[in-house]
């Protein structure tokens, strides 16, 4: 079993992953700053599900779960280099799964500094910590948003991603470049994961499924951007977590067969790899909304809107490398996943339908 640092464990994916790894017998240290980008009560309630008492959470103090001795949590800013290095020195992690980041495409249009602080400076500190306190594996979150203006479908990690349409996307592309530098210069083994529209129970309130469900139940209109002409590779959180869990004990080896005369950007001679992690079955936004209506037993009032700045029309993941290397097999139908979210939403918010 591994000693694993998971950053972002008060967040959506990090919460689910930490619980999965603890269930598998790993010793997990969760880290999060618990900022107010969205409802902090939801973040603390996620932690509560893992046995972390809100009253015990204090900055730079380790708290042990009341449910499992294998899980501890620390509130910490990624930008706090000294405290982060101290944590690495004390805990001597085998593996780091770095999911913490300033999320949200549209928020980056109005709060750019938050993305530089967390996604650039924070990630640099993670890389430096892994350099000076060597780990077997660093798995980090990139994003499908790096594909930007690229319209070659399905999105392939072998494709160029030099045309981002949001600062959020630019910071994630920067993370991939920074990771390669540290893999090449210092031998830090890194795996970057480009997430494709993750959804499910305990999801983020700024995501479409949450927003639509809340509005429909309140009898309010839902905003359907680009007049509904959108497709997303919606991926259920359990499929994502199952994929990451397989990688924890399996760092990617330095690339064989990489050709510098015709370089594939997804790997190199360094211990570096980029994977897409998605469902590989894009769903029309209109069909997604209809599935929500069915799960709720209630029709939505659709308010057609133009395309938003920083958004893209379609995403579709080529996950062939993840299937080949880790036997990744996402198999949750979108109707099943939406029903799972709606069931959680009803219970969490005490909503009668």
DSSP strand tally: 14
What number is the mean pLDDT?
A: 95
As a whole number of angstroms, the C-alpha radius of gyration is 20 Å
Q: State the distance separating the first and last CA atoms.
A: 43 Å
Proportion in β-strands:
15-25%
Shape: globular
Structural class: alpha/beta
Spatial strand arrangement across the major sheet: 3-4-2-1-5-6-7-12
Largest beta-sheet characterization: 8 strands, mixed
Please tally the helical runs, counting DSSP H or I stretches of 4 or more residues.
11
Percent of residues in helical segments? 25-40%
Query: Which consecutive residue ranges, at least 5 long each, have pLDDT under 50?
Result: none
Q: What order do the SSEs take from the amino end to the carboxyl end, as H and E? A: EHEHEEHEHHEHEEHEEEHEEHEHH
